[in-house]
Amino acid sequence: xxxxxxxxxRLATLRQLHQVVAELNTARSLADTLQTVADGAITGLGFELxxxxxxxxxxxxxxxxxxxxxxxxxxxxxxxxxxxxxxxRLSMGERWGDLIFIPHTEGWVLDDDxxxxxxxxxxxxxxxxxxxxxxxLFAPMYTAANGGGELLGVISVDRxxxxxxxxxxxxxxxxxxxxxxxxxxxxxxxxxxxxxALVRLEREQQALRASEESFRQAFEYAPSGMAVAEMGGDQHxxxxxxxxxxxxxxxxxxxxxxxxxxxxxxxxxxxxxxxxTSAEGGRAELRLARRDGTYVWVSLRNSVVADxxxxxxxxxxxxxDIEERKRHELQLAHRASHDSLTGLPNSAELRARLGARLCxxxxxxxxxxxxxLSGPGSDPHGFRTDGKEPFEGIDGFxxxxxxxxxxHVHLVAPADGPADDGSxxxxxxxxxxxxxxxxxxxxxxxxxxAVLIEVARxxxxxxxxxxxxxxxxxxxxxxxxxxLGTADAQDxxxxxxxxxxxxxxxxxRAVRVGASFGxxxxxxxMTAEEVLESADQRMYVEKRSRSKTNRRAAG
Length: 555
What we know:
It is a single chain. The chain is of the alpha+beta class. The protein has three domains: about 5-195, Beta-Lactamase, CATH 3.30.450; about 220-320, Beta-Lactamase; about 340-360 and about 410-555, Alpha-Beta Plaits (2-Layer Sandwich). It contains 18 helices and 18 strands. The strands form four sheets. The protein has a seven-stranded antiparallel β-sheet. The protein has a five-stranded antiparallel β-sheet with strand order 9-8-12-11-10. The chain has a four-stranded antiparallel β-sheet with strand order 14-15-13-18, sandwiched between helices. A hairpin with a 2-residue loop joins strand 16 and strand 17. The longest helix is centred in the middle third of the chain and has 36 residues, at about 170-205. The radius of gyration is 31 Å and the shape is flat.
């Protein structure tokens, strides 16, 4: 089963990966992009050495960038390996998805070929997944996803900082990084070609006419979407010309596209992002509408071009399809915030959701503030007579800003007592399974995992849409249910306990677990940890109370 720290490690890795992928798109030139790719493998993926081998026009691969070791850079940078030697490497070893791993037990046959390398001999591994100094790991970069298209280059990495071969998480991260690196390198080449064309356009009329065909082909046959729009005047932003790639991406004919501007096509939630994007060098990630009414995530990059030296200026927009990356990001974010076994929100996500409902101002502070307005220094109608501003000097307010009107719905716990006073609040039900450890010890972890999955399903089925069921860790679960009174929360705990009690069939045998529930209440002025601790303590009180009742019944 997954340890409690893994989601945090995954979230940290995800943040680092997002950062280095973002940096790929900020490099100004192809050389900067290649070096950024090598550096990103060090800073974002946890390797100590990395090299980018780029396919040349003649098919051979040149070491275009090295990161992590000045000695390795001096030894390898600029050296060329033949395509035949690289094809041999990419057909050997073990395939980890799109990755190629050649263990040291097989890689010795490559020691004498012409591919630049830095590997040195080392001692035998001490445990099965320990990284050996002669191990080789390659991430090919292709012009299309999932290993399609032509080979663009190969990222080679070495020396994981943790000393182990990458697991499933590390392999997936490296594959995703290689895919994004291929896009960044292709875009850098495209931008370099476009920039060279734009320089020629600005020089003289003869150079302008000579470059028009080059620009047209680069525009029309670019793999990513391209558009030219008016700049300035009443028709600012109106699309004048779009290429086939953009028309296919949005499912719209070129003639129909000329009726729109990007502001007409952008998702309503992203209009602010589009408006904040500057014209020159502006970049934004947003959603554009397809003809069928769906939306696709794209990255927009703007450049300003002139028709002639003194002619009108136009906006050239590069539109890149990032739907696949966004989908990967959402998947990775979900994995970082959800329990891998049950699919429920994990401990970190539970605390985030609970913390979002809490504030540091305790209940009653608003009422106390308004009550103070009718005290000394105010007239019978609550207006200040001492020359001060209405809320000046009142705790919980800064200056004259009425802090209670902050659009935050303050949580107040129902009155603590046997009687239900009718007030509602956010109930926090802390659930601990009874008898789970004995099942785990007797039948093994596979049975225990199956029990946890079924308990998670039963808990989820027993709550309302909008309620949260989370796995805190081990055999502990937490339910957040808003808008409940004391009696409602007690009834919910009984229903959930009764849903858990029926036998659970696993591999032909029936096993039973019980459940103890503690009911706490979220209230502003408390932290998420304090709320969970309160519910946990009440759960243990309830567990001890039931144990005593069972012993008396047995006696």
